[in-house]
Amino acid sequence: MLSHWQHEGEEKKMTNEEVMQLFYDSGAMLKGHFKLTSGRHSDVYFEKFTILRQPPYVEKLCRMMADLFGADKIELVVGPTTGGVLIAYEVAKQLGVDSIYAEAGEDGKTRIFKRGFAIDPGTRVLIVDDILTTGRSVREVIDLCNSYKADIVGLGLLLDRSGGTTTFDYPLKSLATIAADSWEPSECPLCANNTPITQRGSRKF
Ligand SMILES: [Zn+2]
Question: What's this model's pTM, rounded to 2 decimal places?
Answer without folding.
Answer: 0.88
